[in-house]
Amino acid sequence: MTAEIHFNRRIPIRHNVDVFIAGGGPAGVAAALAAARSGVSVFLIEGQGCFGGMGTSGLIPAFMRFGDGIHFLAEGVGREIYEGLKQEATLYDDRVHDVVGIDVEALKRLYDLLMEQSGAQFSFFTQLVGVEAANGVVKTAVCAAKSGLFAVEARVFIDATGDGDLAAWAGAPYEKGDEQGRMMPGTLCGLWANFDWEKRNAQPIPDDHYLEQAFEEGIFSIPDRHLPGMFRTGKDTAGGNLLHTFGVDGTDERSLTEAMLWGRKVILEYETYYRRYFPDAFAEAHMVATGAVLGIRESRRILGDYVLNLQDFLAKAVFADEIGRYCYPVDIHPLTSDAQEYERFSEEYARLRYQPGDSYGIPYRILTPRGFDNLLTAGRCVSADRIIQGSLRVMPGCYLTGQAAGMAAAIAAGRDCAVSAVPVKELQHKLIEFGAYLPNA
Ligand SMILES: Cc1cc2nc3c(=O)[nH]c(=O)nc-3n(C[C@H](O)[C@H](O)[C@H](O)COP(=O)(O)OP(=O)(O)OC[C@H]3O[C@@H](n4cnc5c(N)ncnc54)[C@H](O)[C@@H]3O)c2cc1C
Questions:
Q1: What HEC string does the chain produce?
Q2: What's the CATH fold of domain 13-179+298-434?
Q3: Residue pLDDT, tens place only, 274-325
């Protein structure tokens, strides 16, 4: 058994707010904007030095679909981000609201601006390290920052950590990975300068075209058949979503450390690959950064009053308590580098996708962890089975659950009611006023 100590300190209660949000990724920012603009007091903490989570600190190079090919589904915060980036003329590769490349510094500035204008209070470099909860009520969040430990009290707590840290530490039930606890691999993303996009576009061959040849040549340490690729993030910059860190557990810093070390080595193998097989586009290119954090696709899914599932995807479900609709295909990356797993992924990705105009409903109940009165989840860790998590996890989906969680928290704080007692019609009405696309409400 590991030796233990009893840790006991008196720490200041530095904030007492209506809504506390842990995590400033796409879900946390959307939640903060919706809550703060509703007039309630908000305090958000973010462990890194910027908003945006995976899309900034993790250097994820692209947004997946904002819409279903006909409707712009991510109305609200998603629309503001999309239009805000367009104003800065930083959007590249917009294939009818499909994939939108991310100019990472423009996105950071946009989040800063929106958050500052919203009136929400926030603090970077601040980590959630503990939660005090009893009888289904979260009382205090314990935070750690350069100034030391401090506590935050709030009427409603929103977990937007991606990993469900707050909810899990409060004692909410959760699932993690498949039946054997296996999770999608992570990715350390990178950024390249002097990438010649004119030449790359003139050679319209998929990034993975030469992989088998490269395996034979011994360029790679492992034969990873799944290569998402280099995405255009600026005039002459390319964001690489390339390697996979198989077996990583995003809720364990020891596993993350190992994966980061491995990622920083292996990413050079991909440089060799692009230099050799895409010489025209890559001749002058050089890597300028890797992500400050490892890209994590999957960890805890906090179990809520409903679990969105495969049947709902197949049925293009409509819910009475719908807070949004979404459409991205089921994209569960191969769990290992073997050929069978790659086949499973390819078959699933081709099969579990929609025609233009199709989408599934997102019920409010997937944001309310079972048995808690004042706790909500948003983003990657909401209550869905693995299949739907594989769709809803992308950033436009996180804006949808984020803004709904923020709005519901504001209503619950204002009415002093449990989150599960938030009147659905009022929530939907306020979301529509906020700009949300809710055709069934
Ligand atoms: C490699 C990779 C490629 C992807 N590609 C795409 C893509 O092409 N398009 C797309 O739309 N989506 C993509 N995604 C998915 C998408 O980026 C994430 O699922 C999405 O960012 C999740 O949003 P979130 O707000 O739930 O969590 P995150 O983006 O992870 O944000 C969570 C935030 O909370 C902070 N945090 C976490 N724990 C704590 C704590 N204890 N205390 C304080 N702060 C904390 C983190 O620092 C982070 O900023 C990709 C993901 C990965 C990993």
A1: CCCCCCCCCCCCEEEEEEEEEECCCHHHHHHHHHHHHCCCCEEEECCCCCCCHHHCCCCCCEECCCECCCCECCCCHHHHHHHHHHHCCCCCCCCCCCCEECCHHHHHHHHHHHHHHHCCEEECCCEEEEEEEECCEEEEEEEEECCEEEEEEEEEEEECCCCCHHHHHHCCCEEECCCCCCCCCEECCEEEECCCHHHHHCCCCCHHHHHHHHHHHCCCCCCCCCCCEEEECCCCCEEEECCCECCCCCCCHHHHHHHHHHHHHHHHHHHHHHHHHCHHHHCCCEEEEECCCCECCCCEEECECCCECHHHHHHCCCCCCEEEEECCCCCCCCCCCCHHHHHHHHHHHHHCCCCCCCCEEEEHHHHCECCCCCEEECHHHCCECHHHHHHHCCHHHHHHHHHHHHHHHHHHHHHCCCHHHCCHHHHHHHHHHHCCCCCCC
A2: FAD/NAD(P)-binding domain (3.50.50)
A3: 999 999 999 999 999 999 999 999 999 999 999 999 999 999 999 999 999 9
